[in-house]
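Protocol step 4 of 6: structure prediction from sequence.
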Amino acid sequence: PVTWSAYIDRNMVRWATAKKTITIDAEQDGDHEFTLDINNLGGYRRGYTIEGLPSWLTIEEGTTGVLEPTESTTLHATVSKDINIGKYNLLLYLTNDDELTHTLALTVTKQGHAPDWAADKGKLRNMEVCAQVIKDDYVVTNKQNLIGAFDEYGNCVGTAHIDINQQGKALLYLTIYPKVATSEPLNFRMWNVTDGVIYRLMP
């Protein structure tokens, strides 16, 4: 005999999308506002509850409500201006009055601005540095991080971003432009985009 199996999703109250990404500029004044859409795809009136909101994320319409048959509505969400720079991965749960839940994966990233490091490409002979950057025992792979080299006077003598080669290896290719001839070792710093912190790197 021929057999088949099927999965029937009885939950008609759903987020309009299963994933959403929000990016916030750290220099933005005030709170950050965005919208979330929910739908009732069924033919019956349904109540709903939203759970999983952190203290810094609020919804103007509240976390409970009712959707008429086939109704869609837009919710107005606000991220507090007081959250720290970083990346936040959230799961927001939309549950109907039959206790069936649909999940939204929400990513909120608050980004700072990279420092204005810039090397003066003078006439002195330059040199190349090829290295891997290690932080907390892990290879740094974020290509938005900025790495700078500095001489003993604090002058920036080179900057670069992480590069991923064809083999998938994360490497730093940094050209050094010294202002003066010196035998003193260089200092290296990394601006980390995920938390806005500048870290000192040890060769």
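Step 5 (inspection) to follow. The longest strand covers residues 86-96.
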